[in-house]
Amino acid sequence: MDNSIAFNAYSVTMTGKHFYLYVALFIDTQLNILATDSVFKEPLMKHFLYYLLSYNIGINLRNTKKRVKTRERAKGCKMAQKKIKALFIALLLCLMATGVYASAEYKKATFAGGCFWCMEPPFEKLDGVVEVLSGYTGGHTKNPTYEEASSGTTGHVESVQVTYDPEKVSYGTLLQTFWQQIDPTDSKGQFVDRGFQYTSAIFYHSEPQRIEAEKSKTALEASKRFSTPIVTRIVEAKVFYPAEEYHQDYYKKSLIKYKYYRYRSGRDQFLDKVWGKERGRIRGGYIKPARSELRARLTPLQFRVTQEDATERAFKNSYWNNKAAGLYVDIVSGEPLFSSSDKFVSGTGWPSFTKTIDPESIVEKEDRGFFGTRTELRSAKADSHLGHLFNDG
């Protein structure tokens, strides 16, 4: 923090006004909190704050030093105090509003997957996604209309631009969501929509995005989920032109027309066939990878337990006697499920907990087996087998 601002903050305390002391401390704290924001690195902003503090302190001191009648001096000080208070309140509101905005460093991701009506809903359902816009990008025509873009003469493709909070949802999750919406092997369009303007593409906004997109494409190819080559382009993002307003959130504005179009397009039928039960398991930023990927990533025992409902041997597993502090996460998706603070010694030989971190992260299912009817616990987002619930501990 600038020393001049610190000095003036302390000067405020010297006036003996508790209100100014509160404001000074608030500003001091806010400047430290917002130190990473470019706005508050600017000398102009620092001088502006310096001016506000100095100006208002000066008014207070000048009114105090005026050689006028006691009543006039008191009246003048009271009026000055009201003005100071009002100005500082305005400054407080400004700082608070700026602080909220500055703390959220949103990023953008752009994808083309054919009809943008169908690409909006999957991204908008993700926690951490702030906005999804339908539009056109990649071409040479400025500000194209829908008629121009759909004619295939502009070089643009229908696309969606996603604004997201990387603290809540990763770019990797967006990529997984994207792959589950398209046919990446089609080089001439998507489903019922034909032409270059409907082809698939990932438009990266940074080098890290490009690298992650390339890796995700390679992983999808290695999974052998598709029998023909993946042709989705990965290209640098260009100017994105938002589509006309009536296209935005079309699935909400014209639900019946949207559902009719989507069904007739063949998109869902294709995606259900390719992804099966794995489709749509990208919620809240936690993903269940493809079964082939899980086989490669997990140990044979981990795969059998989480995917085939097997059971580890009691007293012979990694965590039954683990006393380290931390979180216990779903090994499949990475979602936190239990906390060490809720772990207790049950005597069963398996790690046991009194409760979950979030009740919605666990699903209870009836398990009818050789040992009678029990309550099985599974993770809600990756559908991993976790164990069983016992009321007696």
Topology record:
Elements: H1 3-14, H2 18-33, H3 38-41, H4 43-65, H5 70-102, E1 107-113, H6 116-124, E2 129-137, H7 146-150, E3 157-164, H8 171-179, E4 189-190, E5 193-194, E6 200-204, H9 207-222, E7 233-236, E8 240-242, H10 250-253, H11 255-265, H12 267-275, E9 282-283, E10 286-287, H13 291-297, H14 300-308, E11 327-329, E12 336-339, E13 343-344, E14 352-353, E15 362-369, E16 372-379, E17 385-389
Parallel strand pairs: 6-7
Antiparallel strand pairs: 1-3, 1-6, 2-3, 2-8, 4-5, 9-10, 11-12, 13-14, 15-16, 16-17
Care to describe what's here?
- The structure is a single chain.
- The protein is α+β, with helices and mostly antiparallel strands and 393 residues long.
- Helix content is 42%, strand content 19%.
- The protein is built from 14 helices and 17 strands.
- The chain has helices spanning 3-14, 18-33, 38-41, 43-65, 70-102, 116-124, 146-150, 171-179, 207-222, 250-253, 255-265, 267-275, 291-297, 300-308, and strands at 107-113, 129-137, 157-164, 189-190, 193-194, 200-204, 233-236, 240-242, 282-283, 286-287, 327-329, 336-339, 343-344, 352-353, 362-369, 372-379, 385-389.
- Strands 7-6-1-3-2-8 form a six-stranded mixed β-sheet, with helices on one face. Strands 15-16-17 form a three-stranded antiparallel β-sheet. Strands 4-5 form a two-stranded antiparallel sheet.
- α9 links the parallel β6 (200-204) and β7 (233-236).
- α2 (18-33) runs parallel beside α5 and α8 crosses α9 (207-222).
- The longest helix has 33 residues, at 70-102.
- The protein is elongated.
